[in-house]
Amino acid sequence: MFDLHMHTTYCDGKNSAEEMIISAIDKGLDTVGLSGHSFTPHDVSYCMSREGTESYIREVRDLDEKYSGDIRVLTGIERDYYADISNGEFDYVIGSLHYLFKTDKGCCDIETVPGKAAAGSNKSEESGAALWTDVDDNPDKLIDFAFRYYGGDLMCLAELYYETLEDIVSVTDCDIIGHFDLITKFNERFALDGQGRVIDLYSESAAAKNVRLLFDTSDERYIAAWKKAIDRIFEETVIQRCGRGDTSEFAADDSLTGADRNILHPNRLETLGLLRAGDKPVFEINTGAISRGYRTTPYPAQDQIEYIKSRGGILILSSDSHSSDAIGNRFEELKHLTQITCS
Ligand SMILES: [Zn+2]
Ligand SMILES: [Zn+2]
Questions:
Q1: Residue 94 lies in a domain
Q2: Is 160 contained in some domain?
């Protein structure tokens, strides 16, 4: 069994790389992958620094040698959509979206402020207000962002999130799609009361109040947004396998079949012998929010898992651990949801 998504003290994790590896050995994993948060210039609060990234790569490679008799250690990266890094030195890449930037994506016709151009400066010159928000830091930030730019329509945030996620494969050249519906992180635990205030449903006094969820995941706008993102991710993965975004050299050769394309640029996890992906994307079933007390179910939601499966996508288990005790959390009970074939 493998777990390829975890964080250390190089970014926002609680344990060192070595402590994480020792815990993975104790839990009986045969392969462990560390996946530090990539450097994001507009928000350095949680990610690895540029220098730290170099030390991280060196240390994890050394630890792979040190523990080679016990476990296989991979040097991965959780690459944010807005990161400023290259993938060259990593064994594999998890592509994740952790931010919403005020752009013309989503439902609302507003002034365009491309996310990448805004990176490095998070303030609007006129208002002094942040042009971006974290998706997963706290629910108040999301609500503030929705009211500041989208008239309080939270569904606009969901549409913005999924529309941005549509090109996660071409932007990050990733092998794994990270926590696909992160936008719903707070949906189980937090809600809005009649005055638009965020309340914690895990507190008993809140449970009886008249509240509505942050995101109605049965809303047809919500469903259309995530289906479009998944469809686009499948399309982009075929292009990625053809030449990691550059299809020009293969365009003239119409004899290429899906199988030939796999030989051209396989998913890095396939090269590592962990699974067979062919020209299909790999999504993680991520138990991180369960470990941290925000949810009782993993990402993605069950209807999204079913849709990914119906299209032939690959699902793997990830703990997104930020501490050594969370490695492999709930894998036994959820492993029936995955469908991995090893080469
Ligand atoms: Zn993440
Ligand atoms: Zn993570």
A1: yes
A2: yes
pLDDT digits (tens, 9 = 90+) for 112-164: 333 333 333 444 444 556 789 999 999 999 999 998 888 889 999 999 999 99
CA of 208 to the centre of ligand 1 (A): 32
Residue 257 neighbours by CB under 8 Å, 6+ apart:
none
- Closest to 139 (Cα-Cα) out of 211, 209, 223, 84: 211
CA of 318 to the centre of ligand 1 (A): 11
Which of the ligands is closest to the CA of residue 98? 1
Q: How many domains does the chain have?
A: 1
CA distances from 189 to 130, 196, 212 (A): 25, 15, 11
Q: Which residues contact 63 (CB under 8 A, 6 or more apart)?
A: 17, 18, 21, 73
75 is in which domain, residue-wise? 2-337
- Domain of 42, CATH number, reads 3.20.20.140
Could you list which residues have their CB under 5 Å from ion ligand 2?
A: 78, 320
Does the bond joining 266 to the residue before it have cis omega, within 30 degrees of 0? no
C-alpha angle 321-73-70 in degrees, rounded to nearest 5: 105
Q: Which ligand is nearest to the CA of 7?
A: 2
Ligand 1 mean position, distance from CA 250 (Å): 34
> How many angstroms separate the alpha carbon of residue 87 from the centre of ligand 1?
17
**80 CA from centroid of ligand 1 (Å):** 8
Nearest ligand to the C-alpha of residue 96? 1
Residue 343 within a domain: no
Q: Considering the domain boundaries, does residue 49 fall inside one? A: yes
- Global pTM value: 0.89
How would residue 76 be classed by pLDDT, with cut points 50, 70 and 90?
very high
H-state helical runs in 218-301: 220-243, 248-251, 258-264, 268-271, 288-291
